[in-house]
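Work Package 3 (structural annotation) set out to generate three-dimensional models for the target panel prioritized at the project kickoff. During this period the team completed the workflow that converts sequence records into discrete structure tokens, so that structures can be stored uniformly alongside our sequence database. As a representative example, we reproduce one entry of 102 residues exactly as it appears in the project archive.
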Amino acid sequence: MTTEKAEILERLHACEAGLEVHRGYLKAMEYALRASFITHQDPDALLSTWTKLLPAIANRHRSEGGSLFAAAFEQSLTILTEQMGTGHPASTGGDDTGETSI
């Protein structure tokens, strides 16, 4: 393998590692938000405030990144809004025991 290919592979692995680290950070924040939704003292006020802020949040970040960023960002905002509206987290792929899990 040439030095150039080895360097490209090394950079690729570094990018993959960085993405995995950020994925871990995001997953941890997702669970923290879910806990906040579940325990919020005034869920109606939370949803009302979120609903008022949502258009500005979406517009402010619409031009960041490319189409993948925009799609992921929009999906995340939608899921967060649904979770706030129902007062419990969306399914995380757990069992069907009816228990709410974070």
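The two ends are 46 Å apart (CA to CA).
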